[in-house]
Give the backbone structure.
Amino acid sequence: MLKISPSAVGMYEQGRREPALDILAAMAQIFGVTIDFLVTGKAGNTEEEARLTGLLLERVNASDLRLNNRRMRPFSREELAVLFAAMLMEP
């Protein structure tokens, strides 16, 4: 998809070479992340990310509240967060 050689990928992975800006832009588009995330490993604070994070937190809290009233909890809070995050991701 990126039209780069396997050796270039290997050099990126080994830290012996940095991808050009156009390659970073293509990677970001393919993986659905920002270039900033690819470079720093930290998610940015875009309005959409903030909205999704808020929605995720709201759903986890609501589910956690409901599950606290049950005798046997089928999921931990962390498992719920992972489950809802996966559901929010684009196919």
